[in-house]
C-alpha cells in the first residue's frame, strides 16, 4: 500500500482543455455546461421517478453493488501535508443542485483566501466531498451540469499548491450503482475535477494527515452494510494506527441523529469503529456527514458529531433536531455494540427560530417552485368536481345512483390513499406511526371536503348548464388553475401542521427549495496536532454573476455581484491532541 498521493498527471492538462479558454459569456457553449435551476422536488414525474429509483435500489441494490468489484482496484493509503507541516482541509456535502447555491459554495471554497469574522482562512490543500454530489439522479449529464461544471468554473486550473479532492458517495450517487461516481472520482487518467486532483482508488479511502491524524471515508451503500473488500482495506489501514492516532471519520449520513427514530441506522458505523479502529487504541475524535442539508454539531465526552450538508441542496430544518441523543442507541437490535454515550446539541445553523420562520414560507413557495405539483392538484380537483357534479345531477334517479357513483368513489379513494401514502411513503425509512395515518387520512379528507365546496360553487355558476363539451372546457380553463392554487395552499397548511408533529418535515422544506443558509467546514490541523474547525456559513447565496474573461488561469470564471459575505455558524471548535 502506498503512502503518498498518486501523481496528478500531465501539468499541461491539469484541469482539462476547457480551462485554457476562459468564457466571455454565461452561454452554455462558452461554459461547457448548462447552469441548472434548483430541482423541483414535488414535481409529479420527479416524485414518481425518485420513488422508483429508491424501490429499485432497495430491491436490486445487491445486484448493482460495485463495491465488491473494487477489490481489483488500487488499495493506496494517501498522505496529505502542507508546506508548514500542518494542513488546511475543507469539507462540503450535498452540493449538486441549483447553480446559484452550488456555485456560491464552490466559489468560496476556491478563493485563495477568505477572511471570516476576523479569521484568515487560506484555501485548503485538501477538499472532501461528503456525499450526494448530484441531484436528483446520478446521470452523467447531471454530474456535468450540477457538480463538475460549477466546480470547474470556480477553480478552472490547478494552483501551485495542487489541492486534492476525495469524495464519499451518498444515496443519490448510488442510484446508478456508482457508475458515474466511479468514472468521475476514481480514475486512472485525467485525474482532475476542475483544479482539484482526484487521487482515490475506490469509493472509500484513507488519508494520513499531519500529527497522526487520519481521515477515513467509508461507503455503506445508503446505510446497508460495509462490504468485505472495504473491511479488508481498512484492516490494512488499521495496522498503521496506534494509541496516539486521532481519526476523522467521514460517513455518508448522520446515522447518529437518524438512530433516534431508526435504532439500527448507526449499526454499520458502530461496527466499523468497534471492530476496525477501537482495537488499535486510536480514537475517533470527529464524525462528519452530510445528507441532512444544514449544519448541526453534537458534543460528547470524547467526540464531536457534525452534520454539514449545506453545499447547495435545499435547506433542511434544524428546529426539529433532538436536543440530546444517545450513541449508539440503547434499543439497537445489534447483539454487540459500543458503550452508549450521551451527546448534546450545542450548535446549529440556521438557528431554530430562523428555521421555523423558513417553514412558514411554504405558502408562497410551494405553488411557484413546483408548478407541476400545482397542476397535478388542479387536475385531481377538476376530476373530483366533475365526478361530484355528475353524482348531484343524477340525484333524482335510482337509489343506487344516489348512493354509489363509481367514478366518485374511485376518485375519493385515490385521493385519501394518496394523501395517506404521502404522509409516509413506502420507500421512506423509519417506522410508520399512528400520527402518520391520522394526519395522512385527515389530509385526504380535507381535499375531499375542498372538492365538495368547489363543486357547490361550480354548480352555482352557469357553466354546468352549457351544452357539452363547453362545461368540460370551462372546468379545465377556469376551475383547474384556481382549484390547483387553492389546493396547493391546503397542502401547505397540511405540511406546516404535520411538520410540527415530525411528519413530512422533509417535504415541508423540499417543496420550498430554499437556496440560502449554506455552509461548509474549513479545518486546520497544526503541526502540534491541534485541530480547529471553522464552520463557514453564508446567509444568502449569490443570484447575479459577472464573467471574468481576462483573469489569471486559476481565477474563478464567474464572480458574484454583490460579493458574498460568509460568517462563522459558531465560534471555532478546537480539539486538542
TrEMBL record:
Domain of life of the source: Bacteria
Region called Disordered, residue ranges: 1-30
Bias type Basic and acidic residues, positions: 1-27
GO function term, MF aspect, one: hydrolase activity
Protein name per UniProt: Metallophosphoesterase family protein
Enzyme class: hydrolase
Segments traversing the membrane: 41-64, 373-396, 402-423, 444-464, 476-497
Species name: Micromonospora vulcania
Keyword line: Hydrolase, Membrane, Transmembrane, Transmembrane helix
EC number(s) given by UniProt: 3.1.-.-
Amino acid at each position: 500500500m502506498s503512502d503518498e498521493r498518486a501523481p496528478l498527471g500531465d501539468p499541461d492538462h491539469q484541469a482539462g482543455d476547457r480551462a485554457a479558454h476562459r468564457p466571455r459569456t454565461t452561454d452554455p457553449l462558452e461554459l461547457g455546461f448548462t447552469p441548472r435551476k434548483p430541482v423541483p422536488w414535488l414535481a409529479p414525474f420527479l416524485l414518481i421517478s425518485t420513488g422508483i429509483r429508491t424501490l429499485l435500489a432497495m430491491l436490486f441494490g445487491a445486484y448493482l453493488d460495485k463495491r465488491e468489484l473494487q477489490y481489483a482496484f488500487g488499495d493506496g493509503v494517501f498522505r496529505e501535508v502542507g508546506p508548514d507541516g500542518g494542513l488546511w482541509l475543507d469539507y462540503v456535502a450535498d452540493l449538486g443542485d441549483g447553480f446559484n447555491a452550488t456555485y456560491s459554495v464552490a466559489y468560496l471554497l476556491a478563493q485563495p483566501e477568505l477572511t471570516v469574522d476576523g479569521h484568515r482562512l487560506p484555501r485548503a490543500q485538501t477538499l472532501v466531498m461528503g456525499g450526494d454530489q448530484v441531484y436528483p439522479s446520478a446521470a452523467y449529464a447531471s454530474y456535468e451540469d450540477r457538480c463538475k461544471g460549477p466546480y470547474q468554473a470556480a477553480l478552472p486550473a490547478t494552483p501551485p499548491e495542487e489541492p486534492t479532492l476525495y469524495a464519499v458517495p451518498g444515496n443519490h450517487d448510488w442510484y446508478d450503482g456508482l457508475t458515474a461516481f466511479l468514472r468521475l472520482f476514481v480514475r486512472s487518467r485525467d485525474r482532475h475535477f476542475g483544479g482539484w486532483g482526484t487521487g482515490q482508488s475506490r469509493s472509500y479511502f484513507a488519508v494520513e494527515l499531519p500529527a497522526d491524524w487520519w481521515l477515513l471515508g467509508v461507503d455503506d451503500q445508503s446505510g446497508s452494510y460495509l462490504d468485505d473488500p472495504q473491511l479488508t482495506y481498512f484492516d490494512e489501514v488499521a495496522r498503521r494506527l496506534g494509541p496516539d492516532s486521532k481519526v476523522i471519520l467521514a460517513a455518508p449520513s448522520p446515522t447518529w441523529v437518524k438512530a433516534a427514530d431508526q435504532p439500527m441506522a448507526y449499526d454499520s458505523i458502530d461496527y466499523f469503529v468497534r471492530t476496525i479502529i477501537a482495537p488499535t487504541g486510536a480514537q475517533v475524535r470527529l464524525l462528519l456527514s452530510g445528507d441532512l442539508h444544514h449544519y448541526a454539531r453534537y458534543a460528547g465526552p470524547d467526540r464531536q458529531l457534525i452534520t454539514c450538508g449545506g453545499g447547495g441542496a435545499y435547506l433542511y430544518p434544524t428546529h426539529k433536531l433532538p436536543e440530546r441523543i444517545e450513541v449508539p442507541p440503547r434499543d439497537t437490535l445489534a447483539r454487540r455494540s459500543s458503550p452508549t454515550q450521551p451527546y448534546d446539541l450545542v450548535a446549529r445553523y440556521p438557528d431554530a427560530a430562523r428555521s421555523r420562520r423558513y417553514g412558514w414560507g411554504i405558502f408562497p413557495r410551494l405553488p411557484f417552485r413546483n408548478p407541476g405539483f400545482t397542476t397535478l392538484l388542479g387536475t385531481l380537483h377538476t376530476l373530483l368536481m366533475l365526478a361530484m357534479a355528475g353524482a348531484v345531477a343524477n340525484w333524482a334517479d335510482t337509489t343506487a345512483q344516489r348512493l354509489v357513483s363509481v367514478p366518485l368513489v374511485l376518485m375519493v379513494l385515490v385521493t385519501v390513499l394518496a394523501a395517506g401514502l404521502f404522509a409516509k411513503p413506502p420507500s421512506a425509512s423509519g417506522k410508520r406511526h399512528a400520527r402518520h395515518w391520522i394526519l395522512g387520512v385527515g389530509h385526504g379528507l380535507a381535499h375531499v371536503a375542498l372538492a365538495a365546496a368547489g363543486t357547490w360553487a361550480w354548480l352555482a355558476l352557469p357553466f354546468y348548464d352549457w351544452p357539452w363539451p363547453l362545461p368540460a372546457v370551462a372546468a379545465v380553463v377556469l376551475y383547474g388553475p384556481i382549484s390547483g392554487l387553492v389546493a396547493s395552499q391546503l397542502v401547505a397548511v397540511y405540511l406546516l401542521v404535520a411538520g410540527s408533529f415530525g411528519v413530512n418535515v422533509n417535504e415541508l422544506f423540499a417543496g420550498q427549495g430554499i437556496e440560502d443558509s449554506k455552509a461548509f467546514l474549513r479545518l486546520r490541523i497544526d503541526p502540534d496536532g491541534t485541530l480547529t474547525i471553522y464552520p463557514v456559513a453564508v446567509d444568502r447565496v449569490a443570484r447575479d454573476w459577472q464573467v471574468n474573461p481576462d483573469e489569471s488561469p486559476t481565477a474563478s470564471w464567474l464572480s458574484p455581484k454583490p460579493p458574498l459575505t460568509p460568517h462563522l455558524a459558531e465560534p471555532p471548535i478546537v480539539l486538542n491532541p
